[in-house]
Amino acid sequence: MEEVTRQQGQARQADGSSARAAVDWFVRHEVPLEPGEGFLGVWRDSRLILLRDMLLPLLLAIMLVALFALTYRRATLVETILFGLLLPLSFAVLIWLPVAILRWYFRIYVLTNRRLIRREGIIWRARNEVQLPKVQNASYSSVGLQKWVGLGTVKVETASMGRAFQMDNVRDALGISQQILKAADEAKHSRALMDEEQVRRMLEAHLVAPGGRRGS
């Protein structure tokens, strides 16, 4: 198991070679931006995970169809009836393939300059969102098969919710975790500047007396 963690306040620059997925029409539709907000990164689970989810149903369907074709002419009546019941099952398994593709496509991880968002689900949509100033820690891990195929899991923690966000099987997990931490640091800095400006204006409003004179 390989794991890298950076606590809040420890400087680490993100690797500029981190791959960014294109912001396609689906992402733009599902993640409307607030004024002044922009996309920094959009990711999906690796296509290897999609192939993994599709492989077993596809092999099962091929096996059932091939077995039916090879034994149909010399099969007994009972075997013919049994295969006749199993054959529709193979077509039902094939229907699962586009469902697996849609599930993979609809699960997205989005990083903006203000938020970290996970959106998934085809009909019943689930969404998990973290405000960047609340991000306290980010880490990545690569275990077993993940490490062998070059994938990793990114985990993000916040001060109030603990482990509140997870990206399951992505490439360049280290680069993504660093990019999230860098964006979080910048968001905290922007928030601090805004808070300072607000305090300054409040002080000026209380110190300046009516008529343009400062109160004693």
List its traits.
216 residues; alpha+beta; PH-domain like; 4-stranded antiparallel beta sheet; 5 helices; 47% helix
Q: What report would you give on this structure?
A:
It is built from 5 helices and 8 strands, in the order βαβααββββαββα. With 216 residues, the chain is of the alpha+beta class. It has 2 domains: 2-45 and 107-207, PH-domain like (Roll), CATH 2.30.29; 50-103, no CATH class. α2 (47-71) runs antiparallel to α3 (77-106). The longest helix has 35 residues, at 173-207. Residues 1-21 have low confidence and may be disordered.
Number of helices: 5
What is the CATH first-level class name of the largest domain?
Mainly Beta
| Cα Rg | 26 Å
Number of domains: 2
In short:
This protein has 216 residues and is α+β, with helices and mostly antiparallel strands. Helices cover 47% and strands 25% of the residues.
Task: Please give the structural blueprint.
Blueprint: E1 2-7, H1 25-30, E2 39-43, H2 47-71, H3 77-106, E3 108-112, E4 115-120, E5 126-131, E6 135-142, H4 145-149, E7 151-158, E8 162-171, H5 173-207
Antiparallel strand pairs: 1-6, 2-3, 3-4, 4-5, 6-7, 7-8
